[in-house]
Specification:
Blueprint: E1 5-6, H1 16-25, E2 38-44, E3 54-59, E4 65-70, H2 79-90, H3 95-108, H4 115-122, E5 137-143, H5 148-161, E6 165-175, E7 178-187, H6 193-231, E8 248-252, E9 258-264, E10 268-275, H7 280-291, H8 294-301, E11 305-307, E12 315-322, H9 332-366
Parallel strand pairs: 4-5, 5-6
Antiparallel strand pairs: 1-6, 2-3, 3-4, 6-7, 8-9, 9-10, 10-12, 11-12
Helix pairs in contact: 5-6, 6-9, 7-9, 8-9
Length: about 375
Amino acid sequence: MNKIKCCTFSDLKFREREHLQEWLENTPTAFGEDDELLFIQKEFDGFDDTRERLDLLAIDKQGDLVIIENKLDDSGRDVTWQVLKYASYCSSLSKQQIKDIYQSYLDKKGVSENAESNISDFLDAEDFKEIQLNKTQRIILVSGNYRKEVTSTVLWLLQKYNIKIQCFKATPFSFGEQIFLNIEQIIPVHEVEEYTIKMAEKAQEEQSTQEEQVIRHKIRIEFWKLLLPKLNTKTNLFANVSPSKDNWITAGSGVSGVGFVFSIAKNYARTEVYMSRGNTEENKFVFDKLFLQKDEIEKQTGTLEWERLENKKACRIKQELRNVSLYEKDDWDKMVDFLIMSMVKMETAFKKPLQTINRELKAEVKE
């Protein structure tokens, strides 16, 4: 067993392009046996209106572009921003452009090979026309050492935004005249990479959900602001109700736990008489008493849907307009007209029956 000496690239007088980059380019499995890459360009400067050069560009086994930036002993401060720019530039590359970039690379190397055939062989595809390229982009950083501002930013991008980014530490060793290079993945830590990715996906999903929720809340408030002033010219039932972020608003009926409700969603707009008293039997009692007067009530409201909701505490009587969406503003006028007309009729039709039922409920409580 012999000891080999750990050293730096500067100790060896190695240069970035002539040595590290050249070795990476000629080692398709440098980043792992299960992550073979097809290198398609180096020192790529084919970006519009910029003279910046991307160190290495490759395709992985999924057909995604891999943007590789390599440094020697020090990552520098700006490498993260640098490689994000390159990834953004590459995101717009078409399949034809990628093929042309690779063919140019082969031609410069003096290799009489065909880009289409090589890509097809690499991706185990029979026909280049069937291949999808550049669905997304990956980023790989290689350096002897990383500054804290770089690793901090990379972890943030990975965990917060699920950007596919990896950091590899490149360490040269010498033994006599021989030079060895160790490439070690340090972000995400290889042993917990799957967990890190899952947590990043979860965080991104939660953030997306929160953003969608904020948007939904704004849309609902805007809709209620449209509905309520118009409704208040027809009835005072909702005069003391304010626009809400919820998809429903309710007004009292004069019976505790029984309300008149507006409900809106992505596929309907509806009015309801909703029975949600604390006691299941009392809710069923109110519903059954109203159901006995169904024909008389529907003469004033039109057809209603009577939902006793046998396995639930609450009961509901509703009138619904379907095939409209809260998220289609072109539907709003139609929804508002329906909701106002329906609620005015429901208030009139249910007013006296609910007054009678309220007296009966109070009488039962006294007994």
